[in-house]
Design brief:
This protein has 214 residues and is mainly alpha-helical. The chain has 7 helices and 3 strands. 50% of the residues lie in helices and 6% in strands. The protein has a 3-stranded antiparallel β-sheet with strand order 1-3-2, covered by helices on one side.
């Protein structure tokens, strides 16, 4: 009796398994057909992974150029003259250093090295002050600030001259802040031969043919 019941149970279980398998196959086929119909009816959206690039502010490129202008490692020197002589002469200057060196050249090429550095540091300090454009080129080409600028451009510079090479060296020193200017912190200067009425500006000192103010 027990064997008959076991055999009957086994047959029943087998029948149930077959029924479930058939039902499952039917359900799977139906689901696939439904999915295929849905795919055919609805457009497929493809997701492409790409970096998101947001527009930068209009003056950000100049700021980035200045931030990316790496200060050359400065050697030890006993005098400003030694430091100038030790500066490398790069084959090509960044636009920012070119603007800084140009201001030094046109404003102070006939001055002492200290006088040239004082002019260079004014440009650097202006770019950091928040009161002027935040790049060297922005400071130099700001309207009505430097008389040598004509039509938003500098005159041609004899790049093989000793005066230009000194200006490039001083620009690198001024940018790195590796030698203190005798008028550190100055934001304004004018030629000693003129007497502008600058109210509110504190005079610091005269260096060569320029008078500097904070």
């Amino acid at each position: 009796m027990s064997n008959k019941l076991n055999r009957a149970s086994a047959v029943a279980v087998a029948a149930m398994v077959v029924t479930i398998a058939v039902s499952a196959d039917g359900s799977g086929a139906a689901a696939q057909a439904t999915m295929a119909a849905a795919i055919n009816q609805e457009p497929v959206t493809q997701m492409v992974s790409q970096p998101v690039v947001q527009p930068l502010p209009a003056d950000a490129s100049a700021t980035d150029q200045l931030q990316n202008t790496v200060a050359i490692e400065q050697p030890k020197a006993q005098s400003l003259g030694q430091l100038v002589a030790a500066q490398p002469q790069p084959g090509e200057l960044s636009r920012e250093l070119n603007c800084l060196a140009g201001a030094i050249y046109f404003e102070a090429k006939s001055e002492s090295l200290e006088g040239q550095l004082a002019v260079g540091r004014v440009v650097v300090e202006r770019s950091k002050s928040g009161r002027f454009p935040n790049s060297y080129c922005g400071v130099v080409f700001q309207r009505s600030q430097f008389s040598f600028v004509r039509g938003n451009a500098m005159p041609a510079i004899p790049k093989a001259s000793r005066q230009w090479k000194n200006a490039v060296a001083i620009a690198q020193i001024a940018h790195a802040g590796s030698w203190d200017s005798p008028v550190e912190g100055a934001l304004f200067f004018h030629a000693a031969r003129v007497s502008p009425n600058w109210r509110g500006a504190a005079r610091i000192a005269r260096v060569g043919n320029h008078i500097f103010y904070r």
